[in-house]
Amino acid sequence: MYKLLRSILFNFNTEAVHHFSMNSLSFACKIGWLKKIISNQFSYQHPSLEKEVFGLKFSNPVGLGAGFDKNALYLTELEALGFGFVEIGTVTPKPQSGNEQPRLFRLPKDKALINRMGFNNDGVEVIAKRLGEWKRQRQSPVNRQPQSVSKQATVNGLIVGGNIGKNKVTANEDAWKDYEICFNALFDVVDYFVVNVSSPNTPGLRELQEKDALRKILANLQSINQQKENPKPLLLKIAPDLTNEQLDDIVDLALEVKLAGLVATNTTISRNNLVTPSTEVEAIGMGGLSGKPVQKRSSEVVTYLSKQLKGQIPIIASGGIFTSDDAKEKLEAGATLIQVWTGFVYEGPAIAKRICEGLV
Questions:
Q1: pTM: predicted TM-score of the whole model, two decimal places
Q2: Residue 103, Cα to own-chain centre: how many angstroms?
């Protein structure tokens, strides 16, 4: 059924279809009995899928990566589709519209996407308020006792991560200030944080992956974090285009500042080995490539990081995950959790359920 629907939807603008589909799902989930049917159809629970990672209890290891629900608008709907966790954002201090449209492109022959969204989001104040309201609506009377948001979210099911970044107009030397603003504003309404310095769509952002620049950002956040009564897990998302030497620097720094985990990987700037004609790819222009073309490199990075870390820090794997076999590949490479994104677009709303069934 979804293949037929996909063949129709793929005739329209990619970003417009995304909003249409999610708004339609949101409308359906506002009807109690219909939401229950959706949840029963697309959710899959099994004790063997439950995992405790960096102090959080995940109902299953299948998450949705950042960039899909940038503004925390669809958490209820995504939970109904069976995801164990959802990463919102990337969130920046000030709202920004992102790059000019069109900025999201399909490469069906490669089961891939190219995006140059540019951190379009409503800004941290609006998103923090929205998340707070969402959590209050979910919180039953028994859970209204003073406790950390992480524990509340664990009781209620869906784990929510906050992916944070810097505004386009912020100079790299001041980037640490933007990350601090987002960290403080979202602290009480997310369960873990991911520092995003690996998107190719904000000019100069990837330069922050260099060890000294990254240390300034992470050490500052961790200093603030450790002063809190209930510190939150702090993770770093990295690009697939790093060399082994750069990955070694990431490992050293992760251990030095005591990161809770790493997310590997973001989109790639590479255009190698695509089936789509080069003329079409060149016409699309700049942007991060995701989907099947990233699968192999992402798994290589996970494998390398896992060997270097020797189990000291968990890894969330992302990149080219469409099926349970793809998920198993990442888990066998050393990942603890996995995230889908492009696979959701190509495989449809049952992707989390199918992966979970396959893992069991």
A1: 0.94
A2: 19
ω before 102 within 30° of 0 (cis)? yes
Beta bridge partners of 289: 114, 268
Q: E-assigned strands of the chain?
A: 51-53, 56-58, 62-64, 85-91, 104-107, 112-115, 159-164, 192-196, 234-238, 261-264, 288-291, 315-318, 337-340
**Burial class of residue 302 (count of CB atoms within 10 Å of its CB; 0-12, 13-18, 19+):** buried
**Longest Cα separation, the chain:** 59
DSSP 33-53: HHHHHHHHHH----GGG-EEE
| Residue 125 CB-density burial (10 A; 0-12 exposed, 13-18 middle, 19+ buried) | middle
pLDDT in tens, 84-129: 999 999 999 999 999 999 999 999 999 999 999 999 999 999 999 9
Element (H, E) at 252: helix 244-256
Closest C-alpha among 161, 200, 212 to residue 316: 161
Domain boundaries, the chain: 2-359
Cβ contacts of residue 147 below 8 Å, gap of 6+? Answer: none
- Two structure tokens written together for 31: 């009807």
Residues with a catalytic annotation lie at 199
109 contact partners, CB below 8 Å, separation of at least 6: 275, 276
What lies within 8 Å, CB to CB, of 144 at 6+ separation is none
Fold of 2-359: TIM Barrel (3.20.20)
What's the token pair of residue 241? Answer: 């285009």
